[in-house]
Design brief:
The structure is a single chain. The protein is mostly helical. The protein folds into 3 domains: 64 residues, no CATH class; 69 residues; 76 residues. Helices cover 77% and strands 0% of the residues. Helix 6 crosses helix 7. The chain is elongated and about 80 Å long. The relative contact order is 0.09.
């Protein structure tokens, strides 16, 4: 005999747009046996739909597994930006892989070393592109590991931004370069460092402290 709690839950979820496969997978992931879920699926035949929720074997409300998928819009924006970044890295990687071959006849003996260096950079770009694609998918789906990786990347960018500011200040006071060149390098380093520090700091703070973000990735 089907468990009435599971039957009620299935009937409550079908009108919300979830397929039977999604509901079945969610129930099984929460600890219900496949046999009980399948029995309840067979019993579901319409009629009055109960809106009450049920809990899993640990006492967790199964409605929470749907709520946690409400990923904030800004997170989805970050996800899209990761896809765009991945596409850019693929294009750059292709240039590094294909570029040296077109000038190998000009460079002669040095061509082999240059090709190896460029191939290494190109492969590195492809690996980063794959990572960014998976990160974009993870952010869109509200997966916990993606939030952690995003926080780590943001903190690294924050530190790099601070180092850029410091390097810009050093360049500004350098006596080894011409005065105009050192000032240009110094100002560009300081400005880009400030921008990187602010943007990555805000992203890290948002990913760490925002309540909706924590709920979406719980």
């Amino acid at each position: 005999m089907a468990d009435q709690r599971v039957v009620d839950y299935i009937r409550a979820q079908l009108p919300r747009g979830f397929t039977k496969e999604q509901i079945r997978g969610g129930l099984i992931s929460q600890g219900w046996s496949a046999q009980k879920v399948d029995d309840a699926m067979r019993e579901v035949s319409g009629g009055n739909i109960s809106q009450k929720g049920i809990v899993n074997h640990e006492g967790t409300d199964l409605h929470s597994m749907n709520e946690k998928k409400n990923v904030p819009g800004l997170i989805k924006f970050f996800s899209i930006m990761n896809y765009i970044g991945a596409g850019t890295m693929i294009l750059i990687g292709l240039q590094f892989v294909a570029g040296p071959a077109s000038i190998s006849s000009i460079l002669g003996a040095f061509a082999v070393q240059l090709i190896n260096i460029f191939l290494g950079i190109g492969i590195g770009m492809f690996i980063l592109a794959v990572l960014y694609i998976f990160l974009g998918m993870g952010l869109w789906k509200g997966q916990r590991w993606a939030r952690i990786v995003m926080i780590v990347f943001s903190l690294i960018g924050f530190i790099v931004g601070i180092l850029g500011i410091a390097a810009g200040i050093l360049f500004s006071g350098s006596q080894q370069l011409s005065q105009g060149l050192s000032i240009n390098y110094g100002l560009s380093g300081i400005i880009s460092g400030i921008i990187a520090t602010i943007i990555n700091g805000l992203i890290a703070a948002y990913m760490i402290f925002n309540k909706k973000v924590k709920e979406a990735f719980a």
